[in-house]
TrEMBL record:
The keyword Cytoplasm does not apply. GO terms for molecular function: DNA-binding transcription factor activity; sequence-specific DNA binding. Residues 199-296 form the HTH araC/xylS-type domain. This is AraC-like DNA-binding protein. Keywords: DNA-binding, Transcription, Transcription regulation. It comes from Paenibacillus taihuensis.
Length: 296
């Protein structure tokens, strides 16, 4: 761990599909007004969610007053401080984004105090995850996301109860939590003009994946020549229209398989002429046959 108060402003945490989060510590606590933590530097990452009350949060040069439902997300790369303004209830989770071992490493013995000067002069890094098409998505330092409390409480209970298999359950819950935060961030991004140009085609495929859409038909929905449309579609999605249609069919097929529907019914519903063709498409996309996917 480095206590350098002015590290690089951008830290890439890895690829979202390759994350191996480990929960190091989780707590649900009630504290009085004027309780404080810091200025300090932690050895891992922390999500601090305020369930009730108010607290002042400083991460590097950024200040924020947290109220009920607000969360802060920060890491080991810059000083921070939390001071409760009122009596407060919070959930705090210390974790690592990528760690092969499932064994929690309690952060308490590696927390470092820092000076007021280091706190005020530090620069908050930008933490980013690589998502589809190698795009880097910045994780929010502060956010308010309704519906987080249930999964946060499940993480706390798993950590405290230490039932058989709790470590792998914690990894699964933490992965779900990170994915939820990422998806919430994606919904807030402004759509580019280029992306909006292919919306009619995307909506049509999503609405009727069983239809054997031709590139000409999809291009006509958007009002563009087929060559321009194909180039624009690949630029925005990373796939050709045909491959995107297949991917959408397989995504829906996974849902139907896990819902208990028979392969014959799924193949017909998604526009496949035969179970053999459906199974081949499914394996090309997932690396598994439909039966193997359902078993796993």
């Amino acid at each position: 761990m480095s206590s350098d108060p002015n590290p690089s402003r951008q830290i890439v945490l890895g690829t979202i599909d390759d994350l191996q989060p480990t929960v190091n510590f989780a707590s649900h606590a009630e504290v009085p007004a004027a309780e404080y933590w810091g200025p300090r530097i932690i050895p891992d990452y922390q999500l601090f969610c305020l369930l009730s009350g108010e607290a002042d949060m400083q991460i590097g040069e950024d200040h924020q007053t947290l109220t009920a439902g607000d969360s802060a997300l920060y890491g080991p790369h810059c000083p921070h401080r939390i001071i409760t303004r009122t009596d407060a209830v919070f959930i705090g989770i210390h974790f690592a984004y990528c760690q092969e071992s499932l064994e929690p490493v309690h952060p308490a013995f590696s927390i470092e105090t820092c000076s007021e000067e280091a706190l005020h002069k530090s620069i908050r890094p930008s933490y980013k995850l690589e998502i589809d098409n190698k795009e880097l998505l910045e994780l929010p330092p502060f956010f308010n996301m309704p519906g987080l409390e249930p999964i946060l409480m499940r993480i706390v209970k798993e950590y405290l109860n230490e039932q058989p298999g709790y470590r792998i359950v914690l990894r699964a819950l933490m992965t779900e939590l990170i994915a939820t935060i990422v998806r919430n961030q994606l919904t807030k991004r402004p759509r580019s003009l280029e992306q909006s140009k292919i919306d009619p085609a995307l909506q049509a495929i999503n609405r009727e994946p069983e239809k054997n859409w031709t590139v000409n038909e999809l291009a006509a929905l958007c009002g563009y020549h087929v060559i321009y449309f194909s180039s624009l579609f690949r630029k925005c999605t990373g796939e050709s229209p045909k491959q995107y249609l297949i991917s959408e069919r397989i995504r829906k097929a996974k849902y139907y398989l896990l819902s208990g529907e028979k392969m014959e019914v799924i193949a017909e519903r998604l526009g496949y002429a035969s179970i053999h063709y459906f199974s081949r498409n499914f394996k090309e996309e997932t690396g598994l046959t439909p039966t193997e996917f359902k078993q796993q």
